[in-house]
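Hello,

I think I submitted the adenosine-5'-triphosphate job twice by accident. Can you confirm which output corresponds to this input? Input:
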Amino acid sequence: MINIKILKLGGSLFTDKNASTGTVKIDIVEQLAFELGEYVLKQDKKKVSLVLALGTGSFGHQPAKQYKVLQKFNPMGTIETYKSVARLSSIILQVLNKHNINAVPVDIMSCVVAKNGRIKSLYIDTIQLLIQNGFVPVILGNVVMDIETKVSIVSSDQIATYLAKELDANALGFGSKEEGVYDASKMIIKEINNKNFGDFEKYIGASEFPDVTDGMLGKVREILQESPVDACIFNAKKSGNILRFLRGEQFGTKIVGYGTDSTNNISKVVTIESKINSKKVNA
Ligand SMILES: Nc1ncnc2c1ncn2[C@@H]1O[C@H](COP(=O)(O)OP(=O)(O)OP(=O)(O)O)[C@@H](O)[C@H]1O
Ligand SMILES: [Mg+2]
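Support: Only one job matched these inputs. Its output is below.
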């Protein structure tokens, strides 16, 4: 498969992240779906090659925080968080389908096993077949089973970078409500790489609202450490920006992935190389 694009859309964009229960901003969902629909319309229906990873805002972070899902094993809290995220998924899927996007949900509780909150395995075949047949897989961060902690949370930031690796994606974008990552004077940082991250880290924080996966700092770290390609963090609320990303434009803040960062540590490169080699052996 070629030219796969992975777009993560942040929960802070289309939910009221500060609300105590899941609250969707339906006008924003409509706007995002309209723009995605414009893109899909211009593609060969069988070669859309787009995957959407969606954040969950108040639908995921609020129940996870309320039930302390990450602190101790809590079956009821797990179920409540799962149900809340599933509710958001169903609302968004309905809008995407209305805009002629053949969006299909992929439930990570059913296809992921984690180890200490990191994806240990993910059943990729379904996602590959969906893409090959012109569907747009839509995957939300959620609670998953974990071999160490019983239950953990896998964020859509982690899903997006993981899938970029597994699917050999050539574009990875993070649509946010912010213009990018800001420095101390709220200016957009043009590029963050492994070498300059230490200079900027002090300006990057968690979310202003409840976020159990560390907000902007978690996102930047995730990309620096796990993305095989460069990614951009951009404002997806601004009309036209999703199309700019999908057409290959680089704007907002560029985060240099480990696969392209010459300053990065060698162990990651070894990991991906051994993975490619083992894939060849298995092929
Ligand atoms: N230096 C920074 N630049 C930009 N945003 C920052 C910075 N430091 C902290 N933030 C906060 O991080 C937030 C973005 O992270 P957050 O995880 O909330 O976004 P998201 O990915 O849209 O949401 P979700 O996790 O629900 O998908 C911003 O809205 C802002 O409040
Ligand atoms: Mg977040």
